[in-house]
Amino acid sequence: MAAWARAVRGLLLDISGVLYDSGGEGGGVPIPGSAEAVRRIKASGLKLRFCTNEAQATREKFVKKLQGLGFDISVDEVTAPAPAACRLLKERGLRPHLLVHDDLVPEFADIDKTNPNCVVIGDAAENFSYANLNEAFRVLIGLEKPVLISLGKGRYYKETDGLKLDVGAYMKALEYACDVQAEVVGKPAKAFFESALAEMGVPPEQAIMIGDDIVSDVGGAQQCGMRGVQVRTGKYRPSDENHPQVKPDAYVNNLAEAVDTILSQM
After folding, report:
1. Total domains, the chain
2. Contact 5, 261 (CB under 8 A)
3. Which domain does 99 fall in, by range?
4. Which UniProt keywords apply (predicted)?
């Protein structure tokens, strides 16, 4: 009996690496069985949130891409860092200097960006040039109380041409240079998972996070009191199973296998 799959009311699913393998600009290939697994979850009556650190496109554009790949998903089912960052900026009266992907900029359309008093960093891809990083550094170092907000903390992610550095590496560079601690609004921040749970109306002990990132997905969920399951797709590597700090509640070969096990316990 799979004890990890019992007494579940809600599922949180990472997207890239769990639903599909990213194919870079405009691409992507669904992982076999994942679209059907999503349909089965919804038909079962379980609550569902799609949790992503996607920061190279607006949620609308990202969801449209997933719908084109055959997934039953809507914008209001997605928990993502950019909207959370915008709420934080407005609440605290912060005016950001943006170091983000060009396609994400529309998410910040109604945010005052004049005379910046903080820096927001996301997965900027090719925008992570020396000149752009140095500009962000100059904004931070020039502030009496520097504020650095990061749309994630990932070390790397996977595309069809291999692994690529994620925002966490560049975030750490600015932290070191400016002697500042970044505020992370994406995974693995506890507030990110708490927001997704609140949107589902499910307590952490009755929820499972399924992801391919052992630290951001599994570790972040477990720190919030949820169960964390790692799929052997996406960025998963065999060495993850010997991680010194994070021990998933279970490993599964893919999302379809996880859903099979969970639904069999209902």
Report:
1. 1
2. yes
3. 81-184
4. Cytoplasm, Hydrolase, Magnesium, Metal-binding, Nucleus, Signal
